[in-house]
Amino acid sequence: MTSNKPSTSMKERQVAHQYRATLKWSRGGAVFTDQRYSRGHTWTFDGGIVVPASSSPLSVRLPYSVAEAVDPEEAFVAAVASCHLLTFLYVAAKQGYVVDSYADEAVGEMTKNERGKLWVSKVILAPAITFAGDKRPSQEQLEELHHLAHEECFIANSVRSEVVVHGAMSFV
To answer: Of 40, 79, 117, 129, which has the highest C-beta tally within 10 A?
Structure first.
């Protein structure tokens, strides 16, 4: 017998927010079936910004990829790093710390999974954070801020990749 009542899992999946991206690509007269077509395309977001995108030149050789464009792997790394940054700022402010600047040189590592398929298995964050004001975190407190940021980050909670933080701090 089936029930019309929503299951617990359906309740958990109620949509809190939706995010949209519009992608556009055109063949541009290329034969296509010979694999000699441009992978260049655009991503358009709700605020109107248009981002040039492409496959990575590491995956598809030039000129079929566009080196100047953002590739999905870079965007993934940037999304993880950006979410951590924004969540870190939130957590730090909530605990009374003043962050003066935050810079990160995030790196994604691609390896093969258990099925032999390539995936971004690890994202390494290396934020350099400058704090201002009288309240200054210890190294242990900084690590706790990063831990809390990671635990609350929507993107980190959405991926299987390992996220590692090797942060540094300074003071003004």
So the answer is: 129
Domains of the chain: 1-70 (3.30.300.20), 73-171 (3.30.300.20)
Residue whose structure tokens are 């969540």:
87
pLDDT in tens, 128-163: 999 999 999 999 999 999 999 999 999 999 998 888
pTM: 0.86
Question: What is the SS3 assignment for the chain?
Answer: CCCCCCCHHHHHCCCCCCCCEEEECCCCCCCCCCCCCCCCEEEEECCCCEEEECCCCCCCCCCCCCCCCECHHHHHHHHHHHHHHHHHHHHHHHCCCEEEEEECCCEEEEEECCCCCEEEEEEEECCEEEEECCCCCCHHHHHHHHHHHHHHCCCHHHCCCEEEECCEEEEC
Contacts of 133 (CB under 8 A, 6+ apart): 97, 98
Closest CA to 149 of 163, 162, 128: 163
